[in-house]
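Q: I'm teaching a short session on how sequence maps to structure, and I want students to see two examples side by side rather than one. Could you give me a first protein with its sequence written out and its structure tokens following it? Keep the formatting plain so it prints cleanly on a handout.
A: Of course. Example one:
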Amino acid sequence: MLRTRALVLFFLCFGYARAQDEQVLFSPEDRIIFDRLIQEADVEGSASLGEVIVAAGRELLNTPYVAGTLEGHNPEILIVNLRGLDCTTFVENVLVVAAMSEEGQKEWDTYLRQLERLRYRDGIRRGYPSRLHYFTGWIRNNAKKGLVEDITQSLGGLPLEKRIDFMGTHPDLYPALSSEAALEAVQKVEQELSEQVTYILPREEVSEVENQIQNGDIIALATSIDGLDVTHTGFAFRKDNGHLHLLHASTRGSVEISKAPLADYLQGVKGNTGIIVVRPLESRD
């Protein structure tokens, strides 16, 4: 009886499933925040996608930073959490809301479909390994979908060949990798990523090309940590002073705009080797 009551309360507090094969977890507050974001991101028709992205991102200022909100569910389900964001879920949610605003869409189901498309390899959720865990993999797969373009090389980025294997060599940090099948699938993805060349714009050169970086471009921070590609990400935001800053979910506590310009901010990030710059693309439909 107690278990039945607990399940009833759970379903009252959280929407859990649209269909057996389309499970999604969210709270009523997430729906409220989504409706506000869609409304506020509806800026004047002449605004570029980058400007809409910045508008949506700024609506989430002061949202608490919360790590690991996508973890701990087996089988893998689509998780919506707009109450607490990490750097990647911040980027994903803002991109989806901005793209929907550009296309005049406001439906919750459309948001769920687009979030799933962005978060998973080829837009299909097939368990934990299908999530785009590594951000360079996220970039490449979403470029393949026609959603973004990596412009780092055109900005003067230098090629970097690096072994990507942090998850596969630290499976104890990821409970989902206790499954041998999941671990092998992730290691296969890591092998594919390691065979590809990534272009990195050295942090010392960011100030020289910042005039070519636009509002709403995705900024991914490359790292010297063995086995990892990127440790943080956010959006470029040009303040009235003309300098680029980083609009991001900061590990220091919440979504914020960096006080220091981007080039200076990078100097204070331990292990940072430079950035990857990715431009969100207008809908081709």
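Q: Perfect. Now a second example for contrast.
A: Example two:
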Amino acid sequence: MIAFGRLLLDSLRDLAPIILVVGFFQIVVLQQPFPDLGRTVFGLAAVLIGLSLFIRGLEIGLFPIGESMAGAFANKGNVFWLLAFAFALGFGTTVAEPALIAVAAEAAAVKAAEGALPGGEGAQQAYALGLRYTVAVSVGSAIVLGVLRILKGWPIQYLIIGGYVLIVVLTQFAPREIIGIAYDSGGVTTSTITVPLVTALGIGLSTVIKGRNPLIDGFGLIAFASLTPILFVLLYGMVV
């Protein structure tokens, strides 16, 4: 109970800047009371408790299982199953990402409102689903690339630079209406579900494999997961 109370205090400290900013602009700048103070306080308390439970869940559940599974696959010595697990992990966590679902649905709705997506609600759902699966496949591919980098010891900077050079080139040829969506897709993949498991995978692998440093080699998978969705969505826009 004491540990959870300490966790609540830590979460409150993390939320304090947001609370101060909202309170300052609402009271000092706008000079208006909160429209429903009771609901606001209740919502803040719910966020505080939810954030604390989420962080605790990461510590006791997701991080350990991610690291242990990565280590088990590495010790098994079967690269195929390790890469298959990496792809499935990236795909599965991304396709269920709430932020991606929201962005894909909003992109389909705006595209339909602009008249660029005929066919009614079914066409919107198909477009949003295609966008989600495109991003999910891209993240799965990114995790596979990141795992190969850890196994082979490739320098991360060259892969990142090459990826962004390719993005700049594709941007010149992609339809204008897909460019913003593509760049936003790189951000929504690095959210609450994907980041903990992917990070645990990288750390677990670099801990088990000889000659790898968890601090140097264990991180960087999230960078690939942010980069490849931009590439894939730009290509998706050019094809679809």
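Q: What should students look for in example two?
A: Point them to this: The first helix runs from residue 2 to 29. Also worth mentioning: DSSP finds ten helices and no strands in the chain.
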